[in-house]
Amino acid sequence: MNEQTPTVAMEKITSLARRRGFVFPSSEIYGGLSGCWDYGPLGIELKRNVKQAWWSAMVQERDDMVGIESSILMHPKVWMASGHLKGFSDPLVECKSCHQRFRADELTEQKCPACGGELTAERQFNLMFKTFIGPVEDGSNVIYLRPETAQGMFVNFDNVLQTTRRKLPFGIAQQGKSFRNEITTGNFIFRSREFEQMEMEYFVKPGTDEKWFEYWLSERVNWYVKHGIKREHLSLLEHEKAKLAHYAKRVCDITFLYPMGWAEVEGVASRTDFDLKQHAEASGKVLDYYDDETKEHYVPYVIEPAVGVDRALLAFLCDAYAEEPDKEETRVVMRFHPSLAPVKAAILPLSKKENLSNFARDIYKNLRTSMATQYDDTQSIGRRYRRQDEIGTPYCVTVDFQSLEDNRVTVRERDAMSQIRIPIVELKKTLLAKMDGEDFLVVPPGGEVVQSKGKEA
Ligand code: ATP
Predict the structure, then answer these.
(1) C-alpha of residue 308 to centroid of ligand 1, in Å
(2) Is the distance from CB of 240 to CB of 211 less than 8 angstroms?
(3) In whole angstroms, what is the distance from residue 200 CA to residue 163 CA?
């Protein structure tokens, strides 16, 4: 494992998230609810962008993939067949004096970490949330909130196969909420009881699974890097063969260097034909594939990359965070990849005078139909730049009195603080091109570079 030390303290991330409205504790006015979080106005934009980046890479840009959205409540037999009712548990111990509960596998000593008291014997605690379906609360109506989205893909395997006429290899992807009654939560949104997953089941011909496992592992690592994670902050952790779940042939975690250390952001698992076979047996339905090249029926093997949206989002927050010495104070800048930045552009008129405001508002109205845009006309331009830096807005567009004459605006780039002045008619196209990777200092006709590296007061 990589020996690096974390680059940012968790308090910096949680305090920025709270201050700027990315993430709030759930039900905060009532003291919060343990293991649950609410996404604020900027957090939801960031979260939607993370999900869109995944959906785009996993579904939209591929020929071999389809998406679904299955329900959170599923037939209880699903969890019987999948093995969750029997085996989806963690070892629990309780302190005999203070009654706090802990995960036995996370303790280093055989005494209570809170008060030093004696612990009970270990017992298995099932992590699934139970509730009742329908108006009668009795045992026959017990139902579970799903602890993963994956089973939705397995139970719909044949529906997808029949309706889309897919050939192997192909995948089914899903994003959605999952619930786990974790014994201990913590590290901000890293481990919560209600969270969101992005999972994909890739069905392959048995015998080709090793090749596809390697393929997906590298695809997934590349996805993080493409969207702003530093490669040196990612590592692969192969699970020992002897400790694998009975159905898994291979599992490799993609770990990220979080503020509390290396931890799993995503798991890639080779699940063989276990899930489809279990559901075929339990439901009595045929869940196999007819290969019209070899004229055989077989049950496909499955490769599953599974990631938590919240854990990925926390990784993106951590790697975006930067502090730079500034004239008076420190410049905090979130260096989000433009694809993830919650706000792409800010329109900043240099004065509140009516003629300039109306002019700037028209630019704002036009731009916001293509990208998330903010309008800000309060306080000095320097302060407004800093506010946008802190939420990671890649482009600030200043509108000055000269703009009324020459129909041009100044665009300032967040990281190098370079500035270009370009015709307003070119603004939308230019910003879209920059977000797509065009060098910032390339200007459209009628434009010029004002400052190639920023020096701001
Ligand atoms: P861990 O060992 O950290 O509990 P896991 O191996 O049980 O995780 P999986 O069942 O493989 O996790 O779930 C796939 C992904 O879902 C994880 O990589 C993680 O990103 C996310 N995830 C799982 N549990 C939680 C949770 N309690 N809170 C937030 N995200 C979670």
Answers:
(1) 6
(2) no
(3) 18
For ligand 1, atom 24, name the residue with the nearest CA: 191
Atom of ligand 1 at shortest range from CA of 199: 14
Report which residue type is found at 176. G
Contacts of 168 (CB under 8 A, 6+ apart): 203, 204, 205, 289, 291, 300
Ligand 1, atom 15, residue with closest C-alpha: 307
Positions in the chain whose pLDDT score sits under 50? 457
Is residue 265 in contact with ligand 1, taking CB distance under 6 Å? yes
* Beta strands at 395-399 and 37-39: parallel, antiparallel or unpaired: unpaired
Confidence at residue 97, expressed as pLDDT on a 0 to 100 scale: 94
Q: Whose CA is nearest to atom 20 of ligand 1?
A: 308
Q: Are 1 and 262 in contact (CB under 8 A)?
A: yes
23 bridge partner residues: 39
Q: Would you state the pLDDT for residue 456?
A: 58
DSSP for 8-41 reads S-HHHHHHHHHHTTSEEETTGGGT--TT-EEE-H
Predicted TM-score (pTM) of the model is 0.95
Q: Token digits for 6? A: 């974390």
Strand 345-349, strand 373-375: pairing: parallel
Q: Which atom of ligand 1 is nearest to the CA of 182?
A: 27
How many whole angstroms from 89 Cα to the centroid of ligand 1? Answer: 13
Distance CA 40, CA 33 (A): 16
Residues 6+ apart with CB under 8 A from 74: 144, 146, 151, 152, 155
Nearest CA to ligand 1 atom 2: 264
Q: pLDDT tens for residues 275-333?
A: 999 999 999 999 999 999 999 999 999 999 999 999 999 999 999 999 998 877 889 99
Q: What is the pLDDT of residues 133-171, one digit of tens each?
A: 998 888 889 999 999 999 999 999 999 999 998 999 999
